[in-house]
From TrEMBL, chain A:
This protein's name: Carbohydrate ABC transporter permease
Sorted UniProt keywords: Cell membrane, Membrane, Transmembrane, Transmembrane helix, Transport
PROSITE patterns per record: ABC_TM1
Species per Swiss-Prot/TrEMBL record: Nonomuraea helvata
Taxon lineage: Bacteria, Bacillati, Actinomycetota, Actinomycetes, Streptosporangiales
Subcellular location: Cell membrane
Length: 299, 473
């Protein structure tokens, strides 16, 4: 027989406050997200072009999806883009956060400048990067040319279009840097002092203190980064429209096209569920692997 | 390198893209003039702008004779909703039209809705699903058949019958197929234009070659395009631009002269992999990959929506007559226009234009007709001074008003009267899906990844199942 714990008045007060603060989100979710989610389940079993009466088709949309080569192509592109943008983004922004965490003069200015790209509008970012990635006149290929390297065709090339978009995705990762900075500043100085006393050098302190202590933050950024990357499509729509030759047709763009260009709402809903499953699967894999490398100080 | 230097380098890396873009004058040179859009304040009592002063509009309106119809004005106040896709400049002109229309029809109130073209269909398809379509609706030629098939539109024949002075012969009959079904007409064109061969006179003079003319064949065009191609990088001159790609009017412009088609006339069978279409597509691919005489995908990347022809980087272009307005206003180079070239099977060009339609759910159809009738009358076109009026009686006056040379205006009228038609232009419900499916495959051919035969076979294989969606009961 186990003892039943009685909540203290403080715990009850905290619970009330928690529910009060979380209630706006819950109400918003129920009204504006849960309804469409439920509708999407129903839509995935019907055929509907907005003009005619919806027609129940059972699992036909799912069968069609499984047999749709462009769907699988879009899944491949989405995973490639997600892996690329998360791997590069997480690494690059972590290194930048380490630099921005240094006690230097003008630190605030440096941090502001690094965050600036995050507040540039999406369309401006797209136009900017169209310029940067241009095969002949773009900044990247000009820099490469100064080293005697002929740069690729980037967005005009089937092989380099996704890497080009991955590069662009890293540029606006200011929010990730902010999260890393918060994490870095939360590492107790005593750990570094103890390591120094033990004779640990810079690399050893970084590898044995900074990385383990930051692993929950890195994990958070990897998970949220993947979820965002797997849903990306707006900038890709503006920059490549899925081309050349469907090389950048990611799943989000494929869903958008079926829903709002072809008005094939049933199939678009089915594809949305495929995206949901993809996000859940990728997230589940990450959580299952997390135990091997994520260190929780108080666990 | 110390930490400070590393940080400075990182900051420089983050800001360099912005600075480099600011310093790139080539991009600024090639960028299109900004299109004004968005909401603006228009004085309801004196609508006007610098481009369309109210006083001049008032004077023009008074000088025009507005047509009559036997459809009576409403006995009491009614409001009709008119939805169009316009930019901010044109919107002022439309507001002026509404202002004077309301003076002539005091019982008709007009509620205007204006949306950007790329958002228009999505917005009004959603409204159609909700059963709240406007009374009068702009329609791109490729949308109308879908709306007709789904009983969203009301035919205008009965209203034309009630309007004795409605001159149907004033509108090019061969360009109305997009708006017809089962012998009924569901839309009246807001504009109508053929495609023409445009050329840069300065580049031809520099190359010492004769200008294109009515005698030209596609053989001559290919040969001249090769001769006109020169230079490299930012200074490259292309013989022709852009490369033909699967598009609704691919057949009418590029394949029918060779006896080929993208799809058959009923849009139920793919024909692009048949020998004659293959010959035409293969020749264009050679012009791209072997002769480099048309811009590649990479070269077009920064020219998004800005054709190299308009910036003086291409000697020839086949495009709609509506381009003349833009070309007439620029002084960077001298230009000319002539008939599209002939092929072994003759000369073809599409007559394309959008329309105004009356929605089936409209509760004020008579008022909607009064509006459509005047807006799309000869006087209506003259008032709006658009470049490509569907009513031919408005062409000369409008060309003069906007500065299009008289001989070019005559060319357009001749082409519309002679051989321009809607034949071969895709319009059935699956047309967008067909184009989106075929285009990436053709792009792989343009990148040299697959042969022309493989590309056309793959297009046929992938497009064929989609065509089932074109079957309209």
């Amino acid at each position: 027989m186990t003892a039943v714990s009685v909540p203290t008045p403080l715990a009850r007060r905290e619970a009330r406050r928690f529910h009060l603060f979380v209630s706006p989100w819950v109400v918003g979710f129920v009204l504006f997200s849960a309804g469409p989610i439920l509708a999407a389940i129903v839509l995935s079993f019907i055929q509907w072009n907005l003009l005619q009466a919806p027609k129940w088709v059972g699992f036909a949309n799912y069968v069609r999806m499984v047999n749709d080569p462009e769907f699988w192509e879009s899944i491949g592109n989405t995973v490639e883009y997600g892996l690329g943008s998360v791997a590069l983004g997480v690494t690059f922004t972590f290194l930048l956060a380490l630099l921005l965490n240094q006690p230097l003069r003008f630190q605030g200015l440096f941090r502001t400048v690094m965050y600036l790209p995050s507040v540039v509008s999406g369309l401006a970012t797209a136009l900017l990067w169209l310029n940067i990635l241009h095969p002949d006149y773009g900044l990247i290929n000009k820099v490469l040319a100064s080293f005697g390297i002929q740069g690729p065709g980037w967005l005009a090339s089937q092989e380099w279009a996704i890497p080009g978009l991955v590069l662009m995705s890293v540029w606006g990762a200011g929010n990730t840097i902010v999260i890393y900075l918060a994490g870095l500043q939360g590492i107790p100085r005593t750990l570094y002092e103890a390591a120094e006393i033990d004779g640990a050098g810079w690399w050893r302190r970084f590898w044995s203190v900074t990385v383990p202590m930051m692993s929950p933050v890195i994990f958070f950024n990897v998970v949220t980064g993947f979820i965002a990357a797997l849903q990306s499509y707006v900038l890709i729509l503006v920059m490549t429209e899925g081309g050349p030759g469907n090389a950048t047709m990611v799943l989000g763009l494929y869903i958008y096209r079926h829903a709002f260009v072809y008005f094939d709402m049933g199939y678009a809903a089915t594809l949305s569920w495929a995206m949901f499953v993809l996000v859940i699967a990728v997230t589940a894999i990450q959580f299952s692997l997390a135990g091997r490398w994520v260190h929780y100080e108080f666990k | 390198m110390n930490r400070r230097q590393m940080l400075a380098l990182a900051v420089a890396a983050a800001t360099a893209p912005v600075l480099s873009a600011c310093a790139d004058t080539r991009q600024q040179k090639q960028a299109a003039a900004p299109v004004q859009s968005g909401a603006q304040l228009i004085d309801p009592d004196r609508p006007g702008s610098d481009a369309w002063p109210f006083e001049a509009a008032e004077q023009l309106n008074s000088s025009l004779t507005w047509p009559k119809t036997n459809v009576a004005d409403p006995a009491s106040k009614v409001t009709i909703t008119v939805a169009m896709t316009t930019d901010a400049v044109t919107e002022v002109r439309n507001a002026q039209f509404d202002f004077f229309f309301k003076k002539r029809h005091p019982n008709i109130e007009i509620k205007r809705e204006s949306s950007p073209f790329d958002q228009f269909l999505t917005k009004y398809m959603a409204q159609a699903a909700g059963g709240t379509l406007p009374d009068v609706l702009y329609n791109h030629y490729s949308w109308t058949q879908n709306l007709i098939a789904n009983q969203m539109l009301h035919p205008v024949d009965e209203y034309i019958a009630k309007t004795p002075e409605f001159d149907m012969e004033d509108i090019p009959q061969r360009g109305l197929g997009y708006f017809k079904r089962d012998g009924k007409l569901y839309g009246l064109p807001t504009d109508m234009a053929p495609k023409l061969l445009f050329y840069n006179k300065d580049l031809f003079d520099k190359a010492g070659l004769d200008y294109p003319d009515e005698s030209w064949t596609f053989d001559k065009l290919f040969e001249t395009a090769r001769k006109m191609t020169s230079g490299s990088g930012a200074g490259k001159i292309y013989g022709f631009s852009p490369m033909p790609v699967p598009a609704p009017d691919l057949s009418a412009v590029f394949l029918m002269p060779f006896g080929g088609r993208f799809l058959d006339a009923s849009e139920s069978k793919v024909l692009i992999n048949e020998p004659k279409a293959r010959e035409a597509m293969g020749r264009w691919l050679d012009l791209l990959l072997k002769d480099k005489a048309v811009p590649s995908l990479a070269e077009l990347q920064l020219l998004e929506k800005v054709d190299p022809f308009k910036t003086g980087h291409a000697a020839m272009l086949i495009n709609g007559a509506w381009l003349m307005l833009e070309l007439s206003k620029q002084k960077a180079f001298k230009w000319g226009a002539t008939h599209v070239p002939k092929g072994p099977d003759g000369r073809f060009t599409p007559a394309v234009g959008s329309a105004l339609v009356m929605t089936a759910a409209s509760k004020n159809k008579d008022a909607a007709w009064l509006y459509m009738h005047e807006f799309l009358s000869s006087s209506g076109y003259k008032f709006r001074q658009i470049t490509s009026p569907a009513r031919q009686s408005a062409w000369d006056a409008n060309a003069k008003a906007v500065g299009i040379p008289a001989e070019t205006a005559k060319l357009v009228k001749d082409v519309l009267a002679d051989y321009a038609s809607d034949d071969g232009v895709l319009r059935l419900p699956a047309n967008k899906k067909v184009v989106d499916t075929a285009k990436p495959i053709w792009e792989r051919a343009m990148l040299g990844k697959i042969s022309v035969d493989d590309a056309l076979k793959e297009i046929a294989d992938k497009v064929t199942p989609i065509l089932a969606e074109n079957k309209i009961a």
